[in-house]
DNA sequence: AACCAACCCAACCGCAACGGT
DNA sequence: CACCGTTGCGGTTGGGTTGGT
């Protein structure tokens, strides 16, 4: 018999988080930090399990989260990394400071997969799809353009909102008066806790003041910086190749 | 306006990995 | 080494949103 799930206790709340719960969790973590997730809900006065609190914090409330849609360059880098690493979302996410594995996974499943399929590329193998089995001809220009346009519009709107606020706090917390010193301190603490694969050197190079879009190099590999540069380089090459492909296709 | 289907993403689940004893 | 508690990860799902009819 397996281990008991952590959320089976009667009386624990599940489902979407309320603003009040978010506030409680954020204030508790910013003032006390995290020693043990299991104790967090109890001490913060939340009727949630620790696992749920951890997920909410990591995927939504973390101060160093980068809000807004992923850029085309980020998307291309995801494709490149996925080709190398497969479905290792947390590993892939470590290349995108401020992005969560969940966010990247969702983006892959809802957008990138389709984009690749439309281009005649198998999202699993990253190889061209067999012509006979290929359902969507890439000649379907309108379909491809409609996806791109929809995404661009959303991107524009989200970027506008993000710039207007000029802060990466969740929208429902913008008016909250949070202790600035604690907030800044938490950037350091949390980025260390939740980006374990980012080296200290790389971490120092990251501007956590909410506007950073610099990718960090993972620390495990000895030649991480070289790999990082390679990935950026190959990303640029991929983009170029893709643009050429589309140009040849539609002109 | 009402309905429906497709889409999107926050949240959940279960297992793996890790660390302490 | 075995056991146990905790955290991390990847797959999946449910419900809200959007777009089309």
From TrEMBL:
Gene Ontology terms: cellular component: nucleus
GO biological process: green leaf volatile biosynthetic process; regulation of primary metabolic process; response to other organism
The Myb-like domain, residue ranges: 9-61, 62-112
Cross-referenced PROSITE patterns: HTH_MYB (PS51294), MYB_LIKE (PS50090)
Molecular function (Gene Ontology), one example: transcription cis-regulatory region binding
Keywords: DNA-binding, Nucleus, Repeat, Transcription, Transcription regulation
Subcellular location: Nucleus
Protein name as annotated: MYB transcription factor
């Amino acid at each position: 018999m397996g281990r008991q799930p952590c959320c089976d206790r009667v009386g624990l709340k599940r489902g979407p988080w309320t603003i009040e719960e978010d506030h409680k969790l954020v204030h508790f973590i910013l003032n006390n930090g995290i020693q043990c997730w299991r104790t967090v809900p109890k001490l913060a006065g939340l009727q949630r399990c620790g696992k749920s609190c951890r997920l909410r914090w990591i995927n939504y409330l973390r101060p160093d989260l980068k809000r807004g849609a992923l850029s085309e360059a980020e998307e291309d880098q995801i494709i490149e990394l996925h080709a190398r690493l497969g479905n290792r979302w947390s590993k892939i996410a470590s290349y995108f400071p401020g992005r969560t594995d969940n966010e990247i996974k969702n983006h892959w499943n809802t957008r990138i997969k389709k984009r690749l399929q439309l281009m005649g590329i198998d999202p699993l193998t990253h190889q061209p799809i067999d012509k006979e089995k290929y359902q969507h001809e890439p000649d379907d220009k309108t379909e491809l353009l409609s996806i791109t346009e929809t995404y661009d519009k959303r991107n524009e709107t989200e970027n506008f909102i993000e710039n207007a606020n000029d802060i990466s706090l969740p929208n429902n917390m913008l008016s909250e008066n949070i202790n600035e010193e604690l907030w800044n301190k938490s950037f350091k603490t949390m980025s260390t806790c939740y980006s374990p694969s980012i080296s200290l050197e790389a971490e120092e190079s990251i501007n956590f003041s909410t506007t950073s879009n610099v990718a960090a190099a993972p620390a495990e590999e000895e030649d991480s910086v070289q790999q990082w540069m390679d990935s950026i380089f190959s990303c640029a090459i991929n983009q170029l190749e893709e643009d050429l492909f589309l140009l040849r296709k539609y002109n």
